[in-house]
């Protein structure tokens, strides 16, 4: 058993959002906005859209972990432990999200103890993503301080908050057996994650939409993928030297896998996000910056996903040899990146997070109407799901949707929608 080396992190026990030399990717909106680039407070878009069949682009098979069902119940008990159960329907929402299936498909070879740690982290990561979506920069920085201070000093720093308690318990289990390299990479990735969502919050507050290039760079950090890839090292008990993990071929595979996971998620989550007025999505970025219709933007993002798969395969073919032992770990790491690409595409149709109860219909027949959350007089939004119409035949029922988003802050979304049958 490897013991946590406290000295290796003593140089940075207290975290702040000030720029650091170790965090090279810094994003912030321009101080003076170009009115042509600022997101309009009122925009009108029409259309339905079809979803590209991303799983068909990929040659790697879906794999699952045999401990999935056991982990499902145990992670649920862990996340809702004690007095943390605050929302009456939160437990039901967890069941619908099906995070254990995501852990199972992304870490199929992990043993029981490690898959449990991975499953716990994934629900925590999505929880962080959900709560920070509705936060300003000050609030996101507060969450970041709790998480980063806990990671850097898990036996000294203490926070009574829900996030603090959960991240400490998760991290203490991770560092018992995770390699020092995986630990360092996990911490660095989390740092970049929080800095990127800080920038995302600043963009949202300013009503600014970045360029596709800048969004792509930011998305690689807001996705959280690099933390999940450090978990791939942990889950498979890999010991890959820093000099190897930084090789251009491995970095190329990581970026390609990250892009596929991120932009596939942008496609699958677009309807949910636009219903909340959230523009942190490549589809929204392309529609706004390039002034193209919805379906054209979806197809372009699908092309980006296809290109990411090609890049992953290209870089994998370029892997050199470092000797039998390291090569074995590198192959398992490369397989883990592929598992993430395959897993997230299949999980997106096994969860109700994006398509509600229609997920399997959407997977089979991916054309339908968009349903927005109807604007209420007090500015709040009512629940609605992505609704795909299905009459039992192979021909989908098409609807044209005219929706008007007035916003852009998540706390004050007002959506007007008119449906006309075509």
UniProtKB/TrEMBL annotation:
BP term (GO), one: isoprenoid biosynthetic process
Alphabetized UniProt keyword annotations: Lyase, Magnesium, Metal-binding
One Pfam short name: Terpene_syn_C_2
PANTHER family: BETA-PINACENE SYNTHASE-RELATED, TERPENE SYNTHASE
Organism whose genome encodes this protein: Tetrapyrgos nigripes
Domain of life of the native organism: Eukaryota
UniProt family annotation: Belongs to the terpene synthase family.
Cofactor: Mg(2+)
The protein's name in its UniProt record: Terpene synthase
UniProt keyword Oxidoreductase present: no
EC number: 4.2.3.-
Statement: the UniProt record of this protein carries the keyword Lyase: yes
Database matches in InterPro entries: Isoprenoid_synthase_dom_sf, Terpene_cyclase-like_2
Molecular function, one GO term: terpene synthase activity
């Amino acid at each position: 058993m490897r013991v946590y080396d406290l000295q290796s992190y003593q140089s940075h026990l207290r975290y702040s959002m000030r720029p650091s030399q170790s965090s090279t990717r810094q994003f912030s909106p321009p101080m003076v906005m170009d009115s042509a680039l600022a997101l309009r407070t009122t925009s009108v878009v029409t259309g339905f859209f079809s979803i590209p069949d991303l799983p068909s682009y990929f040659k790697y098979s879906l794999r699952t972990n045999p401990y999935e069902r056991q982990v499902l119940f145990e992670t649920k008990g862990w996340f809702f432990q004690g007095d943390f159960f605050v929302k009456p329907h939160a437990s039901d929402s967890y069941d619908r999200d099906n995070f254990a299936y995501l852990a199972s498909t992304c870490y199929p070879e992990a043993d029981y103890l490690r898959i449990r740690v991975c499953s716990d982290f994934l629900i925590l990561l999505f929880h962080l993503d959900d709560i920070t979506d509705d936060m300003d920069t000050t609030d996101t920085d507060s969450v970041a301080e709790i998480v980063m201070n806990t990671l850097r000093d898990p036996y000294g720093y203490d926070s009574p908050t829900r996030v603090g308690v959960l991240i400490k318990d998760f991290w203490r289990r991770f560092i018992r057996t995770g390699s020092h390299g995986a630990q360092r990479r996990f911490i660095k990735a989390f740092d970049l994650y929080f800095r990127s969502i800080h920038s995302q919050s600043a963009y949202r507050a300013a009503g600014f939409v970045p360029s596709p290039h800048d969004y792509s760079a930011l998305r690689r950090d807001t996705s959280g993928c690099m933390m999940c890839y450090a978990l791939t090292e942990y889950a498979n008990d890999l010991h890959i030297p820093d000099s190897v993990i930084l090789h251009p071929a491995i970095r190329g595979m990581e970026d390609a896998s990250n892009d596929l996971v991120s932009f596939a998620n942008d496609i699958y989550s677009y309807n949910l996000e636009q219903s909340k007025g959230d523009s942190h999505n490549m589809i929204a970025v392309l529609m706004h910056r390039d002034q193209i219709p919805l379906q054209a933007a979806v197809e372009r993002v699908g092309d980006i996903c296809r290109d990411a798969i090609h890049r992953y395969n290209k870089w994998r073919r370029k892997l050199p040899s470092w000797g039998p032992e390291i090569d074995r770990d590198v192959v398992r790491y490369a397989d883990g990146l592929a598992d993430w690409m395959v897993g997230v595409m299949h999980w997106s149709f096994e969860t109700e997070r994006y398509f509600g109860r229609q997920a399997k219909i959407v997977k089979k027949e991916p054309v339908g109407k968009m349903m927005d959350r109807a604007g209420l007089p007090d500015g709040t939004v009512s629940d609605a799901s992505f609704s795909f119409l299905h009459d039992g035949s192979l021909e989908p029922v098409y609807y044209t949707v005219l929706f008007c988003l007035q916003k852009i802050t998540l706390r004050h979304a007002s959506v007007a929608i008119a449906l006309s049958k075509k």
